[in-house]
Structures are given as structure tokens and as C-alpha cells.
Amino acid sequence: MSSTETTQKILAAKERSGMTWAQLAEKVGMSEVFTTSVCYGMNSMTEDLAKKLCQALDLDSEVEKEVQKAPHKSWPLSVPQDPLVYRLYEAIMVYGDSVKELVHEKFGDGIMSAIDYEMYVDKKEDPKGDRVVITMNGKFLPFKRW
Question: Residues 52, 30: contact at Cβ < 8 Å?
Fold first, then answer.
């Protein structure tokens, strides 16, 4: 089964279940962002978590095995087409160099890990329009010099 087929099966099962991502993540025992990324084929789960995911969604052992595999992370388009994903991309394009400069000023020459990493998406109610709050928390990794 391909990653795309696995994702399609998971999304169809999630739709049938009526669960939100937060509810599914709670059943699995992981964050909703990470759980969602596994379901979209961008991360993997350990066997025990894969079992919980498939039990929650009434999916077979084939899906359970697939979500345990190390994914091949790739993007079909260089510029995202979905409006929300494009706006996230645009925010990084507009503010990326500024964030890079600030990280280097505060930490030195290095990167933020997307492996030792957490991300949370929250809603902040505001009378002028609700706000999307995205928190990215990654370990700083200095570049090695030799």
C-alpha cells in the first residue's frame, strides 16, 4: 500500500468516526499536530501507537504496519497551492530571514531541529476576529566546526 493510499484510508475512517483530530490524538496518546502528520504520511509511529490509531479508527493491520514505516517526505509542488498552506509558506518567506537573524543572534550559528520538535495549533478568541496561534518549539542545533 502506498503512503497516499494509507492516508486516504485513514482520512476516510476518521470521517466515518466523526472524531476531531484532538479526540483521535487523545485516543492515541500523542499531540494532535504529530498525530495528524503521521496520518498525512509525514511522520511515523511506534507499534503500540499505531495499534491505538488503528483501533480508534477500526483500521486493519496493513495500515498499522504502514504508519510505522519511516516516511519519504516530499512535496509535489515548489509553491503550495492550498490557500492556508500558501499563507504559512508566505509568512516564512516574509519573516524567515528575520527569524534566522534573531535565532543566530540569540543562539549562534545553527538551526532549529524539526526532529526534536513540538508544534501546537491553538485558537485565541478575539472580538475583531479569532486568531490562529501556532507555537513551534525545536531544539537548537549548533553547526559543528572541524
Answer: no
